[in-house]
Amino acid sequence: MTNLKKLPGAIKFALFASAATLVSGNVVAQEAATDDAKTLDRIEVTGSRLKRADIEGAVPVVVIDRAQIDASGDVSVADVLRDSTFSSFGNFRPQSGSSAQALADIDLRGLGSSRTLVLIDGRRAPKAPFSGQSADLNAVPIAAVERIEILSDGASAVYGSDAIGGVVNIILRKDFNGAELRIGTGQTKIQGGDTQEGSAIMGVSSDRGSLIAGLSYSKRGMVFTKDQIGGGTLGVSSFGNNYRTVVPNPDRADPTTPPRPDFAADWRATGAFIRMPGFACDTNGFWVTPGNTCSFDFNSVAANEASIENKSLFARGDYQINDDWTLYMTATASRVNSFGRYAPTPGEVFIPSGSPNDPTPADGLPAFVRHRFAAAGNRDTSTDATVTDLLIGSTGQLTDKVSVDFGLRRNEYHYNELGRGFIVRPLAEQAIANGSYNLLDPFGSDPAVVKGFTATIARESTWKTEELYGTVNFDLFEMGGGVSNAVVGAEYRKEEYADIFDPLSEAGVIEGSAGNSAGGSRDVYSAFFEWLFPFTSTFDVTIAGRYDKYSDYGNDFSPKIAARWQPLDNLTFRASYGEGFRAPTLDILTQQAAFSADPVTDFDTCVVFGGNPATCANTEIQVDATVIANGALKSEQSKQYSIGVAYDPFDWLNVTLDYYNIKVEDRINQFTSQELIDRSIDPSLGPIPAGLGVLRDPITNAIIRVTRGSANEGTLETDGFDFNLRTNFDLGGAGKLENALQVSYINKYDIISVVGDVSNQAGIVGQPDLRAALRNTWSLGDFTVGFSTNYIDGQSDSTGNVGGYATNDVYVNYKTPWKAAITIGANNVGDRYPELVGFNGRPWNFSLYDAYGRTVYFRYTQSF
Prior knowledge:
The chain is mostly beta strands. The protein has one domain: Maltoporin, Chain A. Helices cover about 10% and strands about 50% of the residues. The longest helix has 16 residues, at about 5-20. It is globular, with a radius of gyration of 28 Å.
């Protein structure tokens, strides 16, 4: 059922907040129409490859310009985009304990980062090979960015697969003369999250060409969980020092069962967890739960957010050979490092009967123990990535009505990961079986024995893209509103992907890690067109289409039509309809079976793990999961349309309102363990796809293992509104005041299962249906003062409630007589923190909120 009641209230809130607090958002639509539009040069904007001079296009484009980037305290492109109202459900950020520790992505509309296309100067950004699906924003040097354009409309017809949710086009600096040096630092209220930044840029130009080159550095430190949650919340886990009884193993023939020694494979753990007799469980992080099991306080030692560091070189140049032809080149090289720390390795180990560590020597049976190998130290993971991107191209005029653009591009993302403190299970089980490692006094064991089963694991990942492209842009004929022009083009792209784990990890004998090797390649051939029909000076229509052929699965065609009507100089209506698709990504097509420890809720398993039956229905626990590939996936198909209006009733006021509707059929659903568990309990929620499932203990009904992966299933439908209001007041001798408001509202977010059930997930915990941003900037002479706020609406469902969340930022900028700019500011000046409501195994929603507290920053820029 459609619910529009919250939108007007939200807009009223933001407008009143603007008047009362003079606050502002970090993302503002630069959409004010001008009377001089007819005199503008024809340029290409995000969402179209046609060159035209219109300010208000047929599709909505929001711009984050360099001034807004400089005014923020952000030191990375990822930080800038996290505050975008289009990042509806948040974005992935660097986090310890994740197989994608170093990743920062962008997820528009909550449709997933794999349905959001990231471009750099209109060409695809390289994907992070350790992700296999998403572009890594950490690899983009923020000092090289001129502006960021966000197309909130689907664009598969223009750019191809994975532009269903929208497009983020990062435009690099091009026109820059002189030199600029910059340094900056930020200090968070929470220990560890401090930032550093620095850059040096030089630009020269002449009548025939230009060159800009620079280097940049940025860093954010690692943040420990205990500092963000106040240190008072103990980590709860069954992996402390608890044993379970055994039964014969009916699952031994299952090929997804991790390899175990023959004697261990004959048995399977069952029953409730019982503390190891003789182990005090009260030192070195161990503690006794209310259910009388032994837990380990992982919150006391683990880092929540991994550190991230970027060092980059970049250059962009063009040279005009003659009046008709120009060569251009763009090159970037980035080095991205991260470091994360997670709690000591947990593992379930087999103890044969008669072992000195046998907790039940009298029954003559073996046992399984869930043990935390704290004596081996924490798990530390270091990553090192090198990203290179080179593009060389040429533009030229074949005639006065025909222009061409062609070029070639190559990018590579090389990623290396080292993990220390992991456990080789067969060696650990051998030391436990013979008693050389004492489960009752692990810290008293011989350090050489502990080192003997402790391993450093490795991972090497690569993503390579080679691309050839060419377009022809030509004027066709005159119409009532001007020249009808069109563009046709073709592209060839080769992608090579490899994500290789060390042999021990591939064999499944490493405790405490997740993931397994994957790899593959594909060739993509594309042809596309766009054609503008300006029927009158106030009404035009653009049609577009794109054909993509993938070597590894098939082909698709994506059409689009867009219209713009401007009945008054200050009033524009726009609408578009398009169809698209998303090809299955190489990682989910080729991944080898991999272990994962997944946070879920399951009553029976919680009780067996020692949880309180009164709260187990909502208590998050970790279960073992095996992730498998699906080589039979099809592409998912999408349909989207949008309707909008832009109105400038006064010189000082600009208002836009756009409605969008997106439908994804045969969606590629990466099933979570929770989805499969819910379906195993309630079959009416839908069938469990072939090959996936939940294995339970026949005696206790506790989950033994979940086998999860991807499948084409069901439909996703979402719609909503984007509202922008912008004012600009000239106060005479009192300076200038600019105010801007942006509100993104999700009216519905429906997951329609194969059985026809509709689950509207807009507004549930983790998926807010409204985000708002507000910006006010007052400038007088050489001084600029800015106040801003970012608002995330509250969420609620059966798991609980999360209240609305607003943070306020402030800054002051001074332009000195010696051509310098000094900025002092504070983000989250009110020192607000997210509610500690567990989400996906973290103390709060780690993608949607940060917990840095107040961040005070300083930036000095010197121009020459």
